[in-house]
Amino acid sequence: MDNSLEKQNEIIMKLLHYFITEKNYNPIILQGAENEIWLENLSSDYKIVRIVSGHIHNNEQLTFDIFKTKRVVKKIKKQTFSLNMNVLSFFTDLGENVHLENVKKNHMYFVNVSDEKNLNKYDFVLKSFPDITKKLVMNEKGMQLYLKITRDINVKNQRTNREVEDVFKEKTPIVTRVLVALNIMIYFYMVLTGNSELFTARFALFGPYVQLGQYYRLFTAAFLHADIFHLLFNCYALYIIGSQVESYLGKFKYIVIYIISIFSSSLLSMLFAGGNYFSVGASGAIFGLMGALLYFGYYYRVYLGNVLKSQIIPLIVINLIIGFVAPDIDNFGHIGGLIGGILATYAVGIKYKTGSFEKINGWILLFIYFAFLIFMAFSYAM
Question: pTM for the full model?
Answer without folding.
Answer: 0.84
